[in-house]
Amino acid sequence: NRTEQNRRVQATVTTEAHLGPSYYKAFPRKIEGLLPKVWETIIDARGAGTTYQTPENFTKDLKFIIQEHCPDRARYHLVQKLRILTKPRDLSVLEFSYRLQELNSWVEWMPGTEAPLDQSQLKQAFFDVMPLTWRTRFSNSATRLTDETYKEVVHYFREQDNQATERMKENKLQQRRKSKNGSGRRFSSRGSPKNNKGTRRPNNKPTEQGNNKTPIVSKRNTSCPVHPDSNHTWGEMISTFATRANDASFLQRRNPSNHRALTTRRNPTMI
């Protein structure tokens, strides 16, 4: 990246006299393959020492090597790619706006006749790269893209980027708090939630109040399902059966020989 290299050189070199030679010295370290030899050949052909190595001459030599070794179709492809760029996640909106302008400025350095993007096209390319939710908010704000400058559009989406970053930090902070304090629910080995200690489970058994089932007490007043032709109720049948069962148990304990006679007399089917 030529711009990044220039920034590093400018941050290191403090005097104007050493800036040009630093460009010539640092550039070959960033190119690979046969280009370092080509660059060395070009510099040797100039036949000039450090007095020639100025920032202006460095730009001329860089354009010369690009014109000589760049394919003719590269300029056209670069312009087309500028319209369909995608913003990397680790690149802020402001940094991407600078990168887009930088790539657009490289178009004129390449051979060919394809024109670089004008300000309107550059603004549209930048707008199309932004997330859909941000673009929707921009459209809903009653602001037209054609009425805004490139800097104003960049400023709007910078605000959207900052707000999204703040929301992300807040969400991460809340997740840390939840993981530190616990969610308040435990899970069994199968993944189903367990109730906390001291919490009773709801009683789903039928009661006389609060459900649509027929109360148990009212069933005692219905007709006997065992003897439908009789006049006694189901409750009287239960009481009679319980009384006879107790009598049979009592007689069996007092005189076991009477148990068979009692049960045979009262329930002949048990012979």
Which sheet architecture does the biggest sheet show? 2 strands, antiparallel
What share of residues are in beta strands? under 5%
- The residue-averaged pLDDT reads 76
Multimeric organization:
single chain
| Low-confidence region ranges | 259-271
Short characterization:
The chain has helices at 2-12, 16-26, 35-46, 55-69, 74-82, 93-105, 119-129, 132-140, 150-181, 216-219, 234-254, 257-266, and strands spanning 186-187, 193-194.
Structural descriptors:
about 270 residues; mainly alpha; two-stranded antiparallel ribbon; 12 helices; 2 strands; rod-shaped; disordered C terminus
Any chance you could write out the topology, listing elements then pairs?
Blueprint: H1 2-12, H2 16-26, H3 35-46, H4 55-69, H5 74-82, H6 93-105, H7 119-129, H8 132-140, H9 150-181, E1 186-187, E2 193-194, H10 216-219, H11 234-254, H12 257-266
Antiparallel strand pairs: 1-2
Helix pairs in contact: 1-2, 2-4, 11-12
